[in-house]
Fold this protein.
Amino acid sequence: MKSITVEELEQIEKDKAVILDIRDSEDFNRGRVDGAVNVPLSDVEDYVTGMDKSNTLYVMCHTGDKSMDVVESLTDAGFCAVNVAGGYRAWLRLKLSQTLSEDSSAKQKTRDIERSIIKKFRKSIWRKFTKAIQEYELVKEGDKIAVCISGGKDSMLLAKLMQELKRHGQVPFELIFLVMNPGYNEDNWKIITDNAKLLGIPLTVFESDIFNIVADVEKSPCYLCARMRRGYLYSHAKELGCNKIALGHHFDDVIETTLMGMFYSGKVETMMPKLHSKNFEGMELIRPLYMVKENDIKAWRDYNKLHFIQCACRFTEHCSVCGGEHGSKRDEMKQLIASFRKTSDLIDMNIFRSIHNVNLNTIIGYHDNERKYSFLDDYDKK
């Protein structure tokens, strides 16, 4: 099977090449190789029907794996097909490295990204971020906060927002940008660190072996991995003298969690804007993006032409963002909320407001850590 590196792909004459990008349309629209044609995997056969077989077809996916199968099928059908090794992920790594090597260009890019937060996205992101900080009292004088960075759009934006808050806010506090490497592959790790450099985020890195630990877990490995990652982050942040960790959960995470609790657990509960740690005394978790909608985060990312890896776990490299399948309960909630938004632009906010405005006089029962209450307990006394 013929293969080409992204460095070699960059040198070919694009007007004489047919580059087939088989990722889904959302990922393609967010970032692509110049001149590439988006042909999702399921449409490749129809697309090439009737095509001149003397043309060379360069096929790329996210990692270079799925495209290998397509190249093999096209070759068997008589086409001259070439796999782009490493896929779009390798292309992104190359482009980030090139941008960072141009020192003046990289510095200007960082300034433009910072300016966009305060100017273009002032209403949709900055004001909602600062409102959550104030309304939920998330940041206090003397705090030392570890902003936990996974490498995705949410945590990277959170890091920039916390930087801006420290520069322009009235409350003095300290920041550490904490990144755990649980066993990322080389490409993913380089993209994470290069994006941090481009964004002007100084990383404090530590390593763990979580990926190896959960490698043989068949049932709910993602759940176990998430719990272990949280514990490692708490522990390391405390060692560094922090009293808080900040996570990148946003508005959509909050309302998705609320609906998941109702639909699949039969209870009304939500994701809190801040929590005291039960296992690490004196530590607290905060969620400063609590009021920021995911679509606005995506808009900021796309406006600045930034490209992050949504899931860098080596066990999910063929997940939805890489051309794989959806199917989680949270995905179901995302789709449901998307349909709500088509019906009305008030529904998502009403879900959010409902968890701030519970009328206990109309609740059949509730409980906390200490007791349970039924409306029958004092019904005849009212």
